[in-house]
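Practice problem: predict the structure.
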Amino acid sequence: MTTIHELGAEQLRSRIAAELARARARTAGLTEAVDDADLLRQHSPIMSPLVWDLAHVGNQEELWLVRDVGGREPVRRDIDDLYDAFKQPRRDRPALPLLPPAEARAYLATVRDKVHDLLDRVPFTDRPLVADGFAFGMIVQHEQQHDETMLATHQLRVGPPALHAPDPPSPRVRVADEVLVPAGEFTMGTSTDPWALDNERPAHPVDLPAYVIDAAPVTNGRYREFIADGGYDDPRWWSEAGWAHRTKAGLAAPMHWRRDGDGWAYQRFGRWSPVRDDEPVVHVCWYEAQAYAAWAGKRLPTEAEWEKAARWDPATGRSRRFPWGDEEPTAEHANLGQRHLWPAPVGAYPAGASPLGVHQLIGDVWEWTSSPFRGHPGFAAFPYREYSEVFFGDDHRVLRGGSFGTDRAACRGTFRNWDYPIRRQIFSGFRCARDARPDESGR
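Answer:
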């Protein structure tokens, strides 16, 4: 597939228009699947009403594209504060005078008309914000990120199923347990991907000792062994903070699991089914992932270890955009874009494996790493501090790789997500790593 850098101006306009339309179609599907009462209801105190997300994506599009890039008059300046995520905590949003669903949809349509008019004439080279269409790509990614957030809200809603999708593909290959990643330097981050966000930049060398990483995410079957062995009841496996949270929150299994006779069942978008052992475990918090890793005699990978396993090509020494290469993901590479509504079993995407044989690094489940969220060396906030920089520090842990609900526009080998270590409503799983032994590393 042609990269954005290789497109002429008219081709770039067409690509942007297609990506904007694709994101909006997904937004429409997620918000039209339920009635107005469901859109206005808050399904969890840690999530917004769906109608807030709906108008928020339009407001961000207006702020950045209509007003900033286009220099046009505001469409609705009066609603800026209502849809400012930093001014309005999620728990308080249902009490705000939000736009009703019909008015929110009309607002989005008006903003999009102005954006199309702007897209027809904007130059892509006059300032960094619009170079290679960056501002448009940022808005595409922002909407797709909120679509994934709305998908997580759908998972929390009570009522009959509203979303439908085919099952993921069956396993096609048998996947090894672990893969050795040799010691050495690789390039982490990017300085060339035109739509990469500020926290992915700049590219920089990282030298790592040899380590071993799981060839696939931890599965439900493996995680059930941890539960059956009393993993949730044994403080040996938990950090002090993790054990305190496990106790306070009463954690006993992944979110959305319940006992089903001698086994387990999980609820997925309003449907209950038996837990399938070969699927990656999902809806676990960082503390749960950390405890499982300790129980298994391993640890969570650092963010750099995850990225080297996902991008480094030992044959060339370069870092790829994706595990399989630089081309955009297809249905053969990864479980992305809400094409399916839960993780695919391990071995379902052999075409998406890395050169070292690490599978399902992209899609299926966001993978917790051990790393706190910080800027890469040489980080510079762009175009605003509130996208990344205000979240830097020890409060958040980095997740990598994307989930079945992540769109391809908002997922690549350098893409970084972050959240509090207690969060489970996100589509989060993990894989483990360990230091390589001398006999394995060759040292």
